[in-house]
Design a protein that fits this description.
Blueprint: H1 3-32, E1 38-44, E2 50-56, H2 81-89, H3 96-101, E3 106-108, H4 115-118, E4 134-136, H5 149-162, H6 165-181
Parallel strand pairs: 3-4
Antiparallel strand pairs: 1-2
Helix pairs in contact: 1-2
């Protein structure tokens, strides 16, 4: 089975199985704060093609225009109570499955980043754009956003250079522990994006 076919089968099955949970989460978001339950954000995918990433909204509506803008850290007052739970459990990423079905993303690959970040990539860092971005990836299961950006991108490049079904399986097997642990969600004092947002 090809990687694309596997993406479609797994993402489709996951959406069917989690549909009640997704509906419940969307209702909880709407009950707590006004605005759409689905948050769209422009990201950059394979070969630097832009696309709209779908997530469950975890912050107040219009949060990107308030406070720290696109930067988010632990204790951010823009994060709602429901949003904090969705982030901690990674349930806010469930709508990424629609991105997989649409062909913008894969189940496994580097997390898609913002156009402003891609504009600041070095030539080497642009190598992470040679594959589809993923819901989970090598950098995700090795520290997520708590890692310094330079380390995260090197882990992504390692994945691109060593991409295989065996490595994908290792990532899939380590993803549940990463989600259940709820660690690495925020950049911390020394990690995260090091450029301008």
């Amino acid at each position: 089975m090809t990687r694309r076919a596997l993406d479609i089968v797994v993402a489709g099955a996951a959406l069917v199985l989690t549909a009640p949970l997704l509906a419940l989460a969307m209702l909880a978001i709407r009950l707590e704060s006004p605005g759409s339950a689905i948050y769209r954000q422009r990201r950059v995918g394979k070969d630097a093609r832009p696309f709209d990433l779908f997530k469950l909204r975890t912050m107040v509506d219009g949060a990107e225009h308030l406070g720290a803008g696109l930067a988010v850290n632990a204790g951010d007052t823009r994060i709602t109570r429901v949003g904090a739970f969705l982030r901690r459990t990674s349930l806010d990423e469930l709508p990424n499955l629609f991105n997989v079905l649409r062909g913008h993303m894969s189940l496994i690959g580097p997390r898609p980043t913002l156009p402003v970040q891609v504009a600041q990539y070095t030539a080497r860092q642009r190598g992470r754009l040679s594959v589809k971005p993923g819901i989970t990836g090598w950098a995700q299961v090795n520290g997520r956003a708590s890692l310094p950006w330079s380390e995260r991108i090197e882990l992504d490049l390692y994945y691109v250079e060593h991409r295989s079904l065996a490595l994908d399986l290792r990532i899939l097997l380590r993803t549940p522990a990463m989600i259940l642990g709820g660690s690495g969600l925020y950049k911390g004092h020394a990690g995260g994006w090091e450029g301008e947002l």
